[in-house]
Amino acid sequence: MNITEENYLKIIYELSNENKKEYIKTSDIALKMKYTVQSVLEMIKKLADNFLVEYIPYKGVKLSEEGREQAIRLVRVHHVWEVFLSEFLNLDWTQVHTEAEKLQHVSSDIVTNKLYNFLGKPKFCCHGSPIPNENGEMANISKKSIIQLKEGDKFILKRVIDNINLLNFLRDNEIKLYDEFEIFKLDKFNEIIVLKNKNGKEIYINFSNCKMLFY
User: Fold this and answer.
1) Whole-angstrom distance between the N-terminal and C-terminal Cα of the chain?
2) Among residues 34, 59, 97, 171, which is most buried (max CB within 10 A)?
3) Could you report the per-residue pLDDT of 63-102, keeping only the tens digit for each?
């Protein structure tokens, strides 16, 4: 299996988890990977021929059992490298994804397991996504977006979507995982939520970004 095929399996797996759907639309895959729908369809058919996915026209694609196992392996090695790069090389969380993408394709299971144990068997990556263990088991993913909260609600930030613009915004506003916030104001007309951190600082976030933050 080449690098492109591996990336497809990983993206399908992540979209399935994020959207709570068994079948993923090819248009969603195209949007995520920034490819045309036609090129996505060509690759999906190739993966289906190799029994890595099941594709139903107008319904979408889902991973086969073998495809799911391969995807979990890729997700695991990717997130393990993210933890290492973040904690031991002090890379910013805007940088670790790109570097982990390169390393995930050249790491053996032996290296991944050694690194995983060396890191103390972490349950989550630096963006809050769960890391599968040696048996493919992992903690539940935080799926509740803060867009669902009301004024006065308090929450602890547990996961963020790995979007470079979002991560830059969070870094510039000193927003980190496991920080506690209050929904101070909710402006539905302008689609703005004002957060207040434990130090009383107010942070303005638009609805689009709020949908990528989970508690």
Assistant:
1) 36
2) 97
3) 999 999 999 999 999 999 999 999 999 999 999 999 999 9
Q: What is the 3-state secondary structure (H, E, C) of 124-145?
A: ECCCCCECCCCCCCCCCCCCCE
For the question of whether the overall pTM of this predicted structure is more than 0.70, the answer is yes
Long-range contacts of 77-80 (CB under 8 A, 24+ apart): 77/103, 77/104, 77/107, 77/112, 78/10, 78/104, 79/124, 79/125, 79/129, 79/130, 79/131, 80/112, 80/115, 80/116, 80/119, 80/122, 80/125, 80/131
Write down the pLDDT at residue 19. 77
Burial class (CB in 10 A: 0-12, 13-18, 19+), 190: exposed
| Structural domains for the chain | 3-63 (1.10.10.10), 72-140 (1.10.10.10), 146-214 (2.30.30.90)
Burial of 101 (0-12, 13-18, 19+ CB in 10 A): middle
